[in-house]
Amino acid sequence: MKHLSTRILLTWMILLFIVPAPMVLMLSTTLPTLYLHNMVGIQLGVIAYSWMLAAMYLGTRPRWVDRSVGLPHVYVVHGVMGLMAITLTVLHRQLSPSSGWIKRTGDWALILFIALAVWSCMFMAGWLTSRLRWLELLKHWLEHLARHELSVWLHRLNLIAVVLVFIHVQLINYIASQRIFMAARCLD
């Protein structure tokens, strides 16, 4: 990331601002006034969901993105967006309390996302293990138990976490009742 080109900056701007914008705007104009006190927390959840979907899409290594910004940059954007989405999800959880199955599905998804992020940072982000000697030793010790293929398969558990988030949102009546928002969310 020493040389940031216009394409890379444009990619970041699109992913950070343009991708979540339609859902954020749509929800902010249709949210019932009863829930306006939770607006920031809800919006953070929407942005986190959009960013996680974008990060997962980048993880599929779309050829057109690879050609425009390069695979190393795609991996960096993929990882950073995933971590930023998890951070926003933690804030969403704090600012928008829930209960019952809504809370359970959201918490399960968050736990899965965090566990997979920790695993991925250790096994798939060489920049971190090269800077922390104790983490590098732990990684080498665990590599005997878990090959790279296992890390790739574990990484795919993010799909289950996204399904849990999908169920989480379906269970929220005031959000699920907004048909236009729900349709846009499925298209995102």
TrEMBL record:
Establish whether keyword Transmembrane helix is in the entry. Answer: yes
Alphabetically ordered keywords of this record: Membrane, Transmembrane, Transmembrane helix
TM ranges are 36-58, 70-88, 108-129, 157-176
In which domain of life is the source organism classified? Answer: Bacteria
Name the record gives this protein: Oxidoreductase
Q: What is the lineage of its organism?
A: Bacteria, Bacillati, Actinomycetota, Actinomycetes, Bifidobacteriales
